[in-house]
Amino acid sequence: MTQRLRQCPRCGTLTPAGECCGAVLQRAKPWRMTKQLVRNLHIFAMSRKGLDAETYRLQLERVGVTTSKDLRRDAYMALMRNLRALPDSPRWKPRGKGRAVA
Q: With 11 labelled, which of 2, 24, 33, 41 sits at a CA distance of 20 to 30 A?
């Protein structure tokens, strides 16, 4: 059985070791859309940006998915970039700003 060789990002050498030049060469856990990320995305899109369900679905289709659970990292980042470009809902008020202090 052969070991998988990993390339050091600093010196470029291939090594079967898990570490080289002080850099850890282990594979990172794959990124996935968690329930907390889905929840935060929905709150951001619907509360802060004021999107209705249909407009939210259109934004999802714009990045190539039909449901937020199917988002991959690059599509998630593209969706967030698109949502940030939209103006905030006039009904949305940031917490802690503009409130009277007792």
A: 2
